[in-house]
Specification:
The structure is a single chain. The protein is α/β, with parallel strands linked by helices. The protein has 9 helices and 16 strands. The protein folds into 2 domains: 141 residues, NAD(P)-binding Rossmann-like Domain (Rossmann fold), CATH 3.40.50.720; 165 residues, L-2-Hydroxyisocaproate Dehydrogenase, Chain A, domain 2 (Alpha-Beta Complex), CATH 3.90.110.10. The strands form 5 sheets. It has a 6-stranded parallel beta sheet, sandwiched between helices. A hairpin with a 5-residue loop joins β13 and β14.
């Protein structure tokens, strides 16, 4: 039996450690085990986090080995080579596929019933690799996808319009990377169509403003990496949000990366589209209406991913 109040994080680099911190503060889990190829690093992170438990809710945080994933309800995989300045997410693919070929067989030795949440980049490729290597049902293999990209879009739109980003409903879909796209045709601010709301705020140049905001979203990670070497706070909070949906069985809609089979006319790849997420993982992929340009962009994004999948 798996325990949804118990999670494992594989990889204790910046993303893994920061995700562990956000999950410790969330109160979602009773137990969390940290696993890293450098066991002393995992031990140090577990100790450091545990010393703050007097300020949070009770839980057990330990460093362990793959055997310790045996009853974890969620296994979060952040392990992999980091993205370097000037390097695209796709440049990472061969290095990180090799790492996953070692990690996934170790997981399935001890646990065949967890939900696998892939966070390492390129996340869409590694989610597909995880699905293929694990033999898990597709519903229980998902990637963080464009959850963070969507949050970035909401934040930037909120700043642009002077409104709480939580009132903005919009998605970034496709590859988590250079070919991702914004679904402007469905975007709204608390049910007010985006163009209409923009005009209420005095903005008329919709195409120009959209392109500027989209470019900022797409290039956010590159800019952060140039300035501080890595991104980890935003993605750690995205991990927390996905875990909330699973543990609380929220049936919330998030643009996670999962197996696409027939949706939007695409098949046999993992990419991000609006998806209902609950305690069984991926509950349903939503075939939202896209305009003609958006459908073409989504197909182009899928084509870019397919090229990489063909190489591996």
């Amino acid at each position: 039996m798996i325990n949804l109040q118990r999670c494992a994080i594989i990889g204790c680099g910046s993303v893994g450690a920061t995700s562990a911190f956000t999950l410790m503060e969330s109160g979602l889990f009773n137990e969390m085990v940290l696993i890293d190829v450098n066991h002393e690093k995992a031990e140090g992170e577990a100790m450091d986090l545990s010393h703050g438990l007097a300020f949070t809710q009770p839980m057990e945080i330990t460093a362990g080995s793959y055997e310790d994933v045996k009853d974890a309800g969620i296994i979060i995989i952040t392990a992999g080579a980091g993205q370097k300045p000037g390097e695209t997410r796709m440049d990472l693919v061969h290095k990180n596929v090799g790492i996953f070929k070692n990690i996934i067989p170790e997981i399935i030795k001890y646990n065949q019933n967890a939900i696998l949440l892939v966070v390492a980049n390129p996340v869409d490729i590694l989610t597909w690799v995880t699905y293929k290597l694990s033999g898990y049902p597709a519903a229980r293999v998902l990637g963080s996808g464009t959850v963070l990209d969507t949050a970035r879009l909401k934040y930037l739109l909120g700043r642009h319009l002077g409104v709480d980003p939580r009132n903005i409903h919009a998605f970034i879909i496709g590859e988590h990377g250079d070919s991702e796209l914004a679904v402007w045709s469905n975007a709204n601010v608390n049910s007010v169509p985006l163009n209409e709301f923009c005009e209420l705020c005095g903005y008329k140049e919709h195409r120009k403003n959209r392109q500027r905001l989209y470019e900022k979203v797409k290039n956010s990670a590159y800019r952060i990496i140039e300035k501080k070497g890595a991104t980890y706070y935003g993605i750690a909070l995205a991990v927390r949000r996905i875990c909330e949906c699973i543990v609380r069985d929220e049936h919330s809609i998030l643009p996670v990366s999962s197996l696409i089979q027939g949706h939007f006319g695409l098949s046999d790849l993992c990419m991000s589209v609006p998806t209902i997420v609950g305690n069984k993982g991926v509950e349903r992929i939503l075939d939202i209406n896209l305009n003609q340009d958006e459908q073409m962009e989504l197909e182009r994004s899928a084509s870019e991913l397919k090229k990489v999948l063909a190489e591996i």
